[in-house]
Each structure stands twice: as structure tokens, then as C-alpha cells.
Amino acid sequence: MNLSIKINLSRIPGVIFTKLTGKTGQKKDCIVIPVEDCHLFVGEKGVYLDLSAYEFKEQKYADSHMVKQSFSKETIEEIKQLALIVNPNLTEQEMQDVLNKANPIIGGIKPFQKVEMQPTQATDFNPQPDDLPF
Fold first, then answer.
1. Sign (positive/negative) of CA torsion 134, 127, 16, 39?
2. Beta bridge partners of 119
3. C-alpha to C-alpha distance for 83 and 74, rounded to whole angstroms
4. What digits encode the pLDDT tens for the residues 24-72?
5. pLDDT in the model for residue 49
6. Relative to the CA of 26, which of 35, 50, 86, 100 has its CA 20 to 30 Å away?
7. Contacts of 52 (CB under 8 A, 6+ apart)
8. Cβ atoms of residues 131 and 27 within 8 Å
9. In sequence order, what are the beta bridge partners of 25?
């Protein structure tokens, strides 16, 4: 089965969408993802965002699954403790609402049929100059 996955990076709590000025002086739309604040994992070969997909009981739109960030048990406990400091009398449903708000749906998955693509025009594969300051 072939799957189409879309992730809305701006839905990750802590992500910043901003314009940065490149080497040529042009402003470019950028997404800044603070590693620690966004609970990313730094490994030997890269920086990772752990995700989980949950199947919809009733399929909504064309998506068969929702995608959420996977948090460690420690992170979940930290979120709960902070919520209890703010309101020590939270009900179970209110605590679940806090956890859902801290970990929103950031994407979706849907099956798709393989379609043969036909080129409609010549493609320029020349690399573009690097215009970002980093």
C-alpha cells in the first residue's frame, strides 16, 4: 500500500515561522524548530522527530490516520505536573484536554494509488545558489 503523509510543521508546539535574510539580502520564509523546546532527539546521524500515527475509527476526509508527536513518559509527566501546579483540581477530562493541547494533531496519512507521471516540460536540475546565512 502506498501512503501519502503530510505534516504541518507549524503545528508543532514551539516552532517559529519567520523571515530570515539570506546572503543576497533577500528575506525568505523559514521555520525555526528549537530542538529542546520541541522535544527533538539528537542522535549520531541527525536530529529526529518521533511521530505516531493513529487510525481514525471513522475516516474523516481522505485521511485514514492522524499523526501526532511521540513524547517520552517523562515529558508527559512533566506536562501533567505543570498542569497540576496551575490547577490542582483538574478532572481526568481536563487533564486529557491539557495533554491534547500540548500534543496536537500535526498531520495526516491517506492511501493513494500509484499514477504514472508524464513530464510536461523540461526540468532544470541546476543547483540554486545557497542564499541562507547558515
1. negative
2. none
3. 14
4. 889 999 999 999 989 999 999 999 999 999 998 887 678 889 999 999 8
5. 93
6. 35
7. 67, 68, 69, 70
8. no
9. none
3-class SS at 18?
strand
Give the DSSP H/E element, type plus range, for residue 79: helix 73-86
Residues 104 and 13 sit within 8 Å (Cβ to Cβ) = yes
How far from 28 is each of 9, 18, 76, 112, 132, CA to CA, in Å? 17, 8, 35, 32, 8
| Grid cell digits, residue 122 | 523540461
3-state secondary structure of 48: strand
State the pTM of this model.
Answer: 0.70
Residues in Cβ contact with 117 at an 8 Å cutoff, skipping those fewer than 6 apart: none
| 80 Cβ contact list (under 8 Å, min separation 6) | 95, 98, 99
